[in-house]
Design brief:
With about 70 residues, the chain is mainly beta. Helices cover about 10% and strands about 50% of the residues. The chain has a four-stranded antiparallel β-sheet with strand order 3-2-1-4. A hairpin with a 2-residue loop joins strand 2 (about 20-30) and strand 3 (about 30-40). It is globular and about 30 Å long. The chain starts with 5 loop residues before the first strand and ends in a 10-residue tail after the last strand.
């Protein structure tokens, strides 16, 4: 069981893997969320475009700035 309440389930629409990290973009009801995770996690979870994933968000804040 997870204590995080913010769970967003959707379809992987883009996967970009690098040497160490990967960007996983998930379509959640027409909106997208992108997570940066380790390449090892992508391999362990066998993540592929088109599969269903749940993004679990547990954070105290998110900061974005544009000048």
């Amino acid at each position: 069981m997870l204590s995080a309440r913010n769970r967003l389930t959707g379809e992987v629409v883009e996967l970009q893997t690098g040497d160490v990290t990967a960007e996983v973009t998930i379509d959640v009801n027409g909106e997208t969320i992108t997570a940066v995770i380790t390449r090892e996690s992508v391999e362990n979870l066998e993540i592929e475009e088109g599969m269903e994933l749940t993004a679990v968000v547990k954070a105290t804040d998110v900061m974005v700035r544009s000048d």
